[in-house]
Fold this sequence. Notes:
Blueprint: E1 11-15, H1 19-30, E2 34-38, H2 42-50, E3 68-71, H3 84-91, E4 96-97, H4 99-110, E5 116-120, H5 125-138, E6 142-147, E7 163-168, H6 171-175, E8 184-187, H7 195-198, H8 201-209, E9 217-221, H9 225-236, E10 241-245, E11 253-257, E12 260-265, E13 268-274, H10 284-299, H11 304-313, E14 322-327, E15 330-334, H12 341-348, E16 354-359, E17 377-383, H13 387-394, E18 400-404, H14 406-420, E19 424-428, H15 441-453, E20 459-460
Parallel strand pairs: 1-2, 1-3, 3-4, 5-7, 5-8, 6-7, 8-9, 9-10, 10-11, 15-19, 16-17, 16-19, 17-18
Antiparallel strand pairs: 11-12, 12-13, 14-15, 14-20
Helix pairs in contact: 5-10, 5-11, 14-15
Amino acid sequence: xxxxxxxxxxxxxxxxxxxxxxxxxxxxxxxxxxxxxxxxxxxxxxxxxxxxxxxxxxxxxxxxxxxxxxxxxxxxxxxxxxxxxxxxxxxxxxxxxxxxxxxxxxxxxxxxxxxxxxxxxxxxxxxxxxxxxxxxxxxxxxxxxxxxxxxxxxxxxxxxxxxxxxxxxxxxxxxxxxxxxxxxxxxxxxxxxxxxxxxxxxxxxxxxxxxxxxxxxxxxxxxxxxxxxxxxxxxxxxxxxxxxxxxxxxxxxxxxxxxxxxxxxxxxxxxxxxxxxxxxxxxxxxxxxxxxxxxxxxxxxxxxxxxxxxxxxxxxxxxxxxxxxxxxxxxxxxxxxxxxxxxxxxxxxxxxxxxxxxxxxxxxxxxxxxxxxxxxxxxxxxxxxxxxxxxxxxxxxxxxxxxxxxxxxxxxxxxxxxxxxxxxxxxxxxxxxxxxxxxxxxxxxxxxxxxxxxxxxxxxxxxx
Length: 464
């Protein structure tokens, strides 16, 4: 754990006692802060108090004596309207920060040269974060992975000069981290997202771009207009910018083309990193993730051999195009994290002949946007509440069955795929939330993995 010593003897109010909020409360208490923690959920407050952490209703606090309000990332700061705790802090001119800001202050105070990589973007953050951390760890470097990827940043080991931090940052976390200054800051891409939280696309882009303002090196995807503009502006301010692309060759930068990552300088390709045969980095979207990783790792001083070895050994993320195993010529892929059509598109675009398991709790828009990939689908196996709606979209064009449950879908898809004798893929990429049948997408993916593991003659992949 990173104890928040920079807040020793300072009065701190904390709101939000979920996973990261509770970790932040522990960090502040360990660092000697005068802390008062609260949540709208009485059970969370009760559990926190049981740990010996001071709790109390922030409504009655004397805000003139408070040095900072720490908000958990999920608590609204500005839109659709500020949370009441944020309103009270703002009225008293109390700074509002989050856990990443506390991490940044501890790093700056203890070991400001400790390598720190911060990753953001609308899509691909988690894979890029995991890939960079994996390559660093595979090279023998002391590596800490955390942030929005699911490990609260203040639960990581304390900063030391040779310890590398790889931190995924959501827009919510960046909004609450005014002092962030990573060694390498990465902005992958920007598409409309979380506008209920930020109000407009312009506000959302501005928050994301803030990650780069004081970065030693800014790695920026330039395949969308927002990011391309940010890269140009950032460079015009005299900052170091490395552009990356999955769509086109760059004269200067890192790009994906013909199944490999290419590093270019002055119009000449100087380094190449093949991705062929790396199942965990399949697809053009992973070309962008790998390009960002290569640009970052080069900036951090890794050798070409270290980077190539790390890419080759990357196991991928659980539930995101995760290769579970093979049954003869049939590959089973767990893409349970694809909880809407846009998220399912990369997996559908990565395989030629697919037995597609889809469905669950439907999202607005359904799967109509996936029609360009329908000719890749040998058959669809529809589960959950969305099954009838998805069936109507598929119509007579694509063979389908209403499987209902995931176990039936896996059994029938495995049977049908095995009959062809050709290279086939059984793909769970639901394009739906999981809540009609599973607690979350992780449980759904774990169930798929368990069902595949139970198939006869299955050869499990390394993660499986």
